[in-house]
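Aim 2, interim progress. The first record below pairs a target sequence with its structure tokens.
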Amino acid sequence: MEEKPTEISSSKMFGGYNRRYRHFSTTLGCSMTFTVYFPPPSSPSQKFPILYWLSGLTCTDDNFIMKSGAQRAASGEGIALVAPDTSPRGLNIEGEADSWDFGVGAGFYLNATEEKWKNWRMYDYVVKELPKVLSENFEQLDTSRASISGHSMGGHGALTIYLKNLEKYKAVSAFAPITNPTNCPWGQKAFSNYLGSDKSDWQEYDATLLIEKCSKFSTPILIDQGEDDKFLHDQLLPHNFEAACKGANAPLMLRMQPGYDHSYYFISTFIDGHIHHHAKALKCA
């Protein structure tokens, strides 16, 4: 029998509650935290659709909850926000904390195949284990109606998870996502260590390559990208993804935002539009 998540904090916000939990993840082999924003219910029996948020390099489940301001729109739309952590923690693997862009805080939402990093299975955690934990422990959450979004590394995670599971998620959006990781330094570092040297294995986690295999999108992909983002041209490569979407006839709204950078100031400026984008898809489901 799996242990129930333990609530470790609760804060009221816009009529609902941010509640943070800890549980033992059998997928990752360690204790993990996640945060849920529960909007105020309109009736005791109301079940909320879910928007999963995947955060970027160095982040935890707390960054989005504390900095984005997404709860205002989520409260109005009646959508629960679910923010998992970005990697396993506390396993004390040699080298796990040597750099900010690999290891702890940098799970890249994939299933590692190299033996040393075998616990780094954030893909299975996000797609399989966490929804099961939510479904079994929170009757007010409707895990059958879910959407996914994220920032930077988390934008990469949101796009790849969505493209590999079109039947599970009603919509996807991203802020400044790493869209073509097989062709950027962050992705190459992570993939070579987690997945090994065979670059054909990397393609499974590259949105620009995955989009070519997809069809029948129920809603457009939404991406906001700051034009003053210092990572735009060497790490994020949104125009590679845009070209791939055109080639695959996939619906994409890529909005280049003048003057904006890679920060949560950028995210908080445009987050309401993303919440409404997901609300429309979730309520049509």
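The second target in this work package is listed in the same format:
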Amino acid sequence: MEQVLVENEVQQVKLLDSVNDDHGGVIVELSEAMDLKVFALMLKASIALWRSQGKRGVWIKIPIELINLAEAAVKEGFWFHHAEPKYLMLAFWIPEGAHTLPANASHCVSIVAFVMNNKREVLVVQEKCGIFRGTGRWKFPTGGVDEGEDICAGAIREVKEETAIDTEFVEVLAFWQSHKSFFEKSNLHFVCMLRPLSFDIQKQESEIEDAQWMPWDDYVAQPFVQKHELSRQLVDIYRAKEDETYFGFPPVPMASKHPGQKSYLYFNDRDLKSSKV
């Protein structure tokens, strides 16, 4: 309980349940429905206590079924930090001055899949939607990496979903960053080389207009590949890789902080090994 002034009268108000975070702040996870006015009083009393304790950041996680409580938090000075399908996260900074709370996730991660068979043909698709719809452009399979998914696993999955081709991940050849891509977020694009394990294409009906194995020279001859600086640079990388004068970054499994799981460090292990000889 904490004392707060309500309509010129000091009242004892129940505090919100909270846990300390690792950075001098607190986290509140709401789970029970309550009257908006009651919540507003509890929040005000809790902030008073946290301020007296020298707390810094305050996080309130509101499940979607209690979203009406967000109004009281915003009136108290909280801001929307991020939202997920089942909850809204709000943040508040107690000390004077600019806050040092981490920003919401600023980037999406996507892959570009370079898959070449032993006939020197590359796997390409035409999209039913997106900026290339109806342009006749043949492009490499692309897609977003899912939450909790490794880049190497995401590349294999995207190729399988779009073309039904099974692949083995070889390495990350390059990456680039773009900005203001999706709802003002930035994007990290990883160009991945994969080795085909199957060859019978079955296109994804919902997103892919067509898919084929295309001779490498025909792909390179496309006008947009010739005119686009990034595409030309990537073609140079693919050629250098074919000539074995360029080496990318294969995934090297590492122990994860999560028991029974692996994480991956992507690096040029070939040059590292040769430097130790």
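The CA atoms of residues 42 and 106 lie 33 Å apart. This observation will shape the mutagenesis plan for the next reporting period.
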